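Final paragraph of the annual report: two paired records, presented back to back.
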Amino acid sequence: MENKLFAGTFVVLTRCFSKVCCTCCHVLLLFCFVANLLALPAEASAQVDLDVKYGTELIKGGMKAPDFQLMSPDGKPVRLSDYRGKYVVLDFWASWCPDCLRDIPDVQNMFRKYHARGVEFIGVSFDTNKSAWQAALKRFGISYTQCSELVKMRESKTAADYGIRWIPSMVLVNPDGIVELATVHSYKIEKRLAELFAPGYRTERVISELMVAGSKGLLSAVIQRPKGTEGKKIPLAIMMHGFGGSKNDGLLSLVSDSLLSHGIATLAFDFNGHGSSEGRFEEMTVANEIADAKAVYDYAAGLQDVSEIFFVGHSQGGVVAGMVAGELNDKNVAGVALLAPAAVLRDDAIRGSTLGATYNPLDPPQVIEMPGGKRLGGRYIRTAFRLPIYETSAKYHGKAIIVHGTADRVVPYTYGERYHQIWKGSQLHIMEYYDHGFSQNPYRVAEIVSEFMTSVLEADGQ
């Protein structure tokens, strides 16, 4: 069914249909996510993979997981074979290992989330001092199964069987007793578990495609809401993609899936000159993207079935989200989530280097040829040169969260920290080893955003 609705300055073309995400959608979404990463310059997707250095001798995926019988802290035997038929996460650690202790909150988060879905967790300690081991379990409140040989790692048969030369190390064993994944990075295990058990892909939703009048023509947009909420007032998050991206970007799509599973609708759109929206990329500036975002906000604010509006912005979209929130002066903006906000774009313009393209910042050419074939207009550089990013964003005084990775080579995480400084009371999540696209585990980022929004709604009594 296709309708045309003319309301004020908005032209809306709507097509609604029910959708249940399936394996094909999952594969397509992951393909889009990888494709978007490949579109970035090499430094954008650079990752810190310690498996290359410390995990070379780890047991390989596809191998049979060696059985073991070790003793629990209270002297009871723990056998891996007793858990056949379930996914099992083996967590190799020790109370004397600083990196292990730093990983404990992440492992406990995984346990709380996935144990309820049938995943078992077994901690294999290389402590030799039983009292120190037990004290650490009590101190950190570790409740999942624990066992140990109480011998040094280099003397441990279990360590030898699994190729453990570094801790923390983790191994995911499937229900058939076969190693699914072995790594020194806990985020890889969490990502694999999310792929196996991600709830967002099973959420039925109603999709409405529409066009909204923006700064350079019509903007292509899509609203998704959980099936069964039609006609009911529910929160909505406006999703803002980054430089050269689109409303179908993998990261924001995963965030959208997660929000839908928590009862929050989403509105994703292409900025002018991007995706299916009108306008030319070389005419795009941050200023006219702000105008686009305001137009989309006005449209969303006029919907009768929207109770509150959130902003989610990634990269340049994060800059736009922050500045629009500031310009709106907290008017009906329930919260803002910035993912690797690219406030570096002003410094890039001043230096005369944007994503690998160099130019004279004091006299930029009319058009700048970008890596990948895009043509960036000189007006983008001239307006970015004096763009009041933080000054405008600081006018926002509502709830906010900033997520940034320490391995981001496009936008150093210190730019995310600056938002945290100007937004008093905001949340800051610095993700160790995560790159600009959060490719290490985008599911975790999606979960963080959902937890933030649900906490805001709970505090507001919704």
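The closing record of the year follows.
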Amino acid sequence: MKRVAVIVFVLALIVSAIFIFFPKTKEIIGLDTGPPLIGIQPYGNIADREVDSVKNSIEKMYGFEVVVLNKVDLPEMAYTEIRYPRYRADSLLHWLTYHHPDSIDIAVGLTNQDISITKYKEGTREVKDPEWMYKDFGIFGLGSVGGNACVVSSNRLHKNVSSKTFYKRLMRITCHEVGHVLGLRHCPEPNCLMNDANESIKTIDNSTGDLCQDCWADI
């Protein structure tokens, strides 16, 4: 038994050495798939300019290849009228997870319709107070931490602001949600792009638009 353990240990050391001194080995045998391919899924009548700005922002910030998929209608299964006519963000994430090409590693849903989630008290499944507001709470975007999809809505970003501010918000929120998919959680650093919006667009506006050093290190 000890002999088997020693052999396994030696083999592990050899394999580790191969990967260290011959880094392309992972790629050759299929263990290193390289950077993810991002697919933007535009919904409905979202403007092409909004789609292009999101594409450019992901490419510029993360350096990933980004493709734009054909526009599709928002899935009816995500529609709700709990408070207002809008779409459930968690349902859209579920739909995106199973309705994107196999070649796409991360799907980014983009819509100009309002999206929402239910917000719970921390550590529970009890809806936050006041329940009437948090049972169906409107949001800017939602990303699955370590998953393969996120969704962004431009619906709440343009009120009483310039076109420049609108697109800055859209690009920052998109990169924030992509950050979640890459495994990043909310960051306590106030100026980091991964700082929690805390239900206010001002957090996005006051951000540097970039990740802090710790967040970059975690990707």
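The longest strand covers residues 37-42. This concludes the annual technical report; the extension proposal builds directly on these records.
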